[in-house]
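**Fold in tokens:**
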Amino acid sequence: MIVVNTDFINDTKLKTLGIVKGSTVQSKHVGKDILSGLKTLVGGEITAYAEMMEEARGLATKRMMEEAQSLGADGIINVRYATNAVMQGAAEVMAYGTAVKFL
């Protein structure tokens, strides 16, 4: 399945099937949360949260693609990501786009 953030796929006529999305809410366990809090004192990348967000984006993308496949889509265009802090140490990641069929 082709997944792009443009509103077209080169040299391909498309039939729009509809909006598809996938989301997840992720958090890290309290031990990593405490260590990440200490990291803010000295600065730098908080790798536990970077890894958490990467996992969340991957899972949200997978769920979006599964929804598109259930519609019989060949691809997804206009893919976007949105994030929202649900509570301290937990974030929602949503992936959404337009499912399309190749003509």
